[in-house]
Every structure is written in structure tokens, then in C-alpha cells.
Amino acid sequence: MKAYTYIEKGKFALTEKQKPTLIEPTDAIVRVTLGSICTSDLHIKHGSVPRAVPGITVGHEMVGVVDEIGEKVTAVKVGDRVTVNVETFCGECFYCKHGYVNNCTSPHGGWALGCRIDGGQTEYVRVPLANQGLNRIPDSVTDEQALFVGDVLATGFWAARISDITEDDTVLIIGAGPTGICTLLCVMLKLPKRIIVCEKSEERRRFVSKHYPTVLLTTPEECNEFVVKNSDHGGADRVLEVAGAPNTFELAWQCARPNAIVTIVALYDENQTLPLPRMYGKNLTFKTGGVDGCDCEEVLKLIEEGKIDTTPLITHRFPLNEIEKAYRIFENKEDGVIKIAIHN
């Protein structure tokens, strides 16, 4: 079968691999029907994910059909359409029981698919701990509607949840890439007083303006002044930093009002500085971390109810054998790309 493979730093290639087989009784084999490219895949390509293993099939955003199950898999059955969680987690350790599945202590736990073990930019994928890692897609929900549930939408949902947003809040979201827009959709469910999105790309600002016209828009250069002008207490009550650009961490805490919550879910290529003397007296609360994909079932229900729709994010579609072209467009942000669907 074809598999898009991490060869070495700076190089991916479409290779031939054997169809995966069940290894553990908790495994499932999923026939991938639709996948996508994530910025995290680019981080692997650029060498920013040290735990990524050369030779693995990349890709961790996917939906598919259950092809085989191990004898201990009870949550899904062969033939079910399923979302695949970006995280592998046991569901039994301290962290899993408290909803922090990103910190699962199982040897298989954490971001495994497309990082430490073969992922989903291929035809078939083995999903460890499948009882936790797979969620059945409701019959009325299409593959495209469900495509982002296991990763960028789970990230946005997690970011909105831990930010403790109220209806009195001004919420600033930094970044209107795919994860930023998924975060925006989940913040909108909280019904805050106002939402401001800061994005440097004029193309992406137009996208937000077209699809979410009630959202206020600004640029990084104007953000601080704009937020002060469009908030009630000299800054945003909640700041969600989703961009991960060189200066966006500093922008996030600068735009926050005193005693605000600043939530960081961005993945940075370099270390960030916490300049405590400069922020002394702001009394900020920082919440950090990647996706904790423990809410996928709830997210699927919201999609089924029509409360979340991420399909406008899919701007391009390619077959697996044209994935090199898809990566070029995504990495270089060509042709107004937001997200790309890769189909088998």
C-alpha cells in the first residue's frame, strides 16, 4: 500500500509498505477513507519534533472504516465509520481519568500516530488502544464533517474549555489558521460578549470575515491598540494563542488585561521567554499544553446537531497519489489554502 513516509529531516516521500496487522488485542485496523495535512506534520518535516521516528508513515488527522479489531476491542465493530484520535491513551491511568489524556502514562500513550508509529497518510492504519482512540461517526455526519474531530477540532474545543470563558468576556484569538478557526468555532459556543481574531494574512482575515461576520478582526501590528479600544477593562479577558509565530507569545500576554487567563495551545519551533519583571503586577494565569482529545464524542454530537461545521475549512482535495502537490500548497500557503482533504 502507498504510505507518505518521514525519510529524514526535510524529506518526506510516498513509499510502498505492507498493510498493518493486529499486534495487541486492543488494536484495530482502520481503512483510511479521508485524511488531512496538519501543521504538526510540517514540524516533523522541519525537525522540530525530536520524538518523531524516521521511517514512520506521517499523518494523524483521519477518518475511516474499521477493517479488523482485536479481541479486546468493544467500543467499535468492523464496518463502523470512525474518527481517529490524534492521541493514544489507556483511559485507566491517573491522567486519563482526570481528562488529561495527552499525559497518559501508558508506553503507547500520547502523540503516537504519525509520530512514533505509522500514521494515517496511507491506505490502512493500526490504531493502538482502539477503545479510547476511535469514535463512531453518526450516520448523518459525513466524513468531511468529521475529519478534524480527532485533532484540530479537539484542540480548539480543549482550548475553549480550559479558558473558562463567560458571556461577559472579550476573547482574543491569535491566529486564524486551521486550529485558530476551530478554536473560534468552539469559543463561539460559549457566547462571549465579543470575539477578536488577530491574523497577519489578509487572505485568512477575509475568510473569517466571510464565514463569521460578527467576529472583530485585527492584525499583529495593530492588535494591542485594537484590543484596548474594543474591550471593557483595558485588554482581553481571555487570550487564546494558537499561532505559534515568533512574536505571538509576547503579543498574547501584552494584550491581556490584568488578572486575565492566557491559554497557549500553539506549538513553537523555538523556546519562548516568560519575562516576569515586565509582566509583574498583571497577575496573569497561564494555561498551556497541546490537545487533550477526551471530548471527541461530545464534539461529534455537536456536529450532528449542526452546532459546529468545519467543512468550510476544506479548501482543497487531492488523492493520496498527489500528496506531494498537496504538501507543497499547504506548506507554502498557496491558493488560499486552509485545510486539504486527502482521499483514498
Molecular structure report:
It is built from twelve helices and 17 strands. Strand 11 (194-198), helix 7 (202-211) and strand 12 form a beta-alpha-beta unit. The chain has helices spanning 39-45, 94-97, 130-133, 143-146, 152-162, 178-188, 202-211, 223-229, 248-255, 276-279, 296-304, 323-331, and strands spanning 2-8, 11-16, 28-36, 61-69, 81-84, 87-88, 110-111, 124-127, 134-136, 170-174, 194-198, 216-218, 236-241, 256-264, 285-288, 314-319, 339-343. It folds into two domains: 2-151 and 293-343, Medium-chain alcohol dehydrogenases, catalytic domain (Quinone Oxidoreductase, Chain A, domain 1, Alpha-Beta Complex), CATH 3.90.180; 154-288, NAD(P)-binding Rossmann-like Domain (Rossmann fold). The protein is 26% helix and 26% strand. The longest helix has 11 residues, at 152-162. The protein has 344 residues and is α/β, with parallel strands linked by helices. The mean pLDDT is 95.
Write the layout of secondary structure elements.
Blueprint: E1 2-8, E2 11-16, E3 28-36, H1 39-45, E4 61-69, E5 81-84, E6 87-88, H2 94-97, E7 110-111, E8 124-127, H3 130-133, E9 134-136, H4 143-146, H5 152-162, E10 170-174, H6 178-188, E11 194-198, H7 202-211, E12 216-218, H8 223-229, E13 236-241, H9 248-255, E14 256-264, H10 276-279, E15 285-288, H11 296-304, E16 314-319, H12 323-331, E17 339-343
Parallel strand pairs: 10-11, 10-13, 11-12, 13-14, 14-15, 16-17
Antiparallel strand pairs: 1-2, 3-4, 3-8, 3-17, 4-5, 5-9, 6-7
